[in-house]
Amino acid sequence: MLFENANEYPYSSQRMVTYGKKGMVATSQPLAAQAGLDILKKGGNAIDSAIAAAACLTVVEPTSNGIGGDAFALVWTKDKLHGLNSSGPSPSSISMDAVKEKGHEEIPKFGWIPVTVPGAPGAWAELSEKFGKLPLIEVLQPAIEYAKNGYPLSPTLAYYWKAAYNNYKKSLSGNEFKHWFETFAPAGRAPEVGEVWSSKGHAETLRLIGETGAKSFYEGELADKIDAFSKEYGGFLSKEDLQNFKPEWVDPIGVNYKGYDVWEIPPNGQGLVALMALNIVKGFEFSHRDSVDTLHKQIEAMKLAFADGLKYITDPGHMKTTVEKLLSEEYTKTRRGLIGDEALMPEAGEPPRGGTVYLATADEEGNMVSYIQSNYMGFGSGLVVPGTGIALQNRGHNFSMDPNHDNALAPNKKTLHTIIPGFLTKDNVPVGPFGVMGGFMQPQGHMQVVMNTIDFHLNPQAALDAPRWQWMKDKTVLVEQSMPSHLVQGLASKGHQVQIASNSGSFGRGQIIWRDPKTGVLRGGTEMRTDGAIAVW
């Protein structure tokens, strides 16, 4: 059982697990975690707390998310797990031909072309209306105060902010990008560690969202500003696209992994990749984490799952196969049978015919939230709606320009999405929320954290601290510097092209909260790879 073994991982930082009873908030930023805890102490529940932390993160970690991004959530409340998909579709006026007419054969990373409808404000409003206890404007107040009055930058935040500034300074030359520099580099440079940054426009936008239940963003004053900015520079996004958006409540998908149920959001999210990989490896027995055979089988399973995911996952209405077929025992056995002693080149199979922030919250009543939101690629498109602090996402970059691909660009379509929240239950009883942010590292992080927890009995902090690997492409695997050398050499002997990373920035940043079903005691872990913190009551 998860609460019977407190072993620390021998190569970790040996940080201690955080314990609490009345409430817990785990995020990548201390200020956001504290904001979530403050809302709990004011009488809010775990859902209110998650919204508060999420809104706060758009201010205190804009390098990874923003008001103009998307969001997903898994919410345990009243003895049931609920899924929320608040990712926005492509604009109704976009098409492959229209993109080509603008001189692009592939979808660019920056500018208006990759901008899709933002879903994060809608997620906050939907969660608040359905499950929250406090008014949305009160829940958003900590974020409003930080945006208005400012806060000092933390070390990891400052590092990524400077890297983004240097990249954007080289890459963004059009007049439409000037508002990003005015907002995030007001002194003509990225702010430094400890330097105070604020955004009055961001504060006013959050106030309008809070007072109108996000209606201002999708059909009012803020929608008008987004629409005008898009029209000024020939963007595809329109006020009509914003008006037509609605967050979608979905049934979570899951697999039973060695007695525990692992839950993810269904496509268009890539959580299915984590589930396919876990389905494959559950057919093996693993006696030690520090084993070449263990790592080899994990990597091979993930490669096979990703090959399928990148081919088939898109807007559910456009998928040429189903979740059920990809997770079927028949198909899983076929994929598992491909794993041998040598590293393979991953290829998609044929199923049977027929820059992100993650946070977790929990309260005394047993409510728990696994929540994730992102602008993609750090700050996103490089576009900030003038005077609003709204940094728009570039999620449309994931669309394919191949008309025969499942994830081909089309109007009013949701693209393959990288951000995924996770949740663990056992015998219909909640264990708790978990997640690992970081682009296509996310399902890989989910798999490793779940196996560290269930197969190797590591506590939440140790499960996060353990050295990670990341499959990149073909036979290339990136590993952290803390990975023991004998494992690196062993993987190389099996044909893996192993590269040792210069830093841990690409290996994801996660949070975990487990709840003891007998006592209600909460146990939390947060990342050493970021400025993570757990606020506890």
Automatic annotation (TrEMBL):
| Superkingdom classification of source | Bacteria
> SUPFAM superfamilies, alphabetically?
N-terminal nucleophile aminohydrolases (Ntn hydrolases)
- What keywords are annotated for this sequence in UniProt? Transferase
Task: Please list the GO terms describing molecular function.
Answer: transferase activity
**Where are the membrane-spanning stretches?**
none
- Pfam families annotated for this entry? G_glu_transpept (PF01019)
State the InterPro entries in the record: GGT-like_enzyme (IPR052896), GGT_ssub_C (IPR043137), Ntn_hydrolases_N (IPR029055)
What name is this protein filed under?
Gamma-glutamyltransferase family protein
Tell me the organism's taxonomic lineage: Bacteria, Bacillati, Bacillota, Clostridia, Eubacteriales
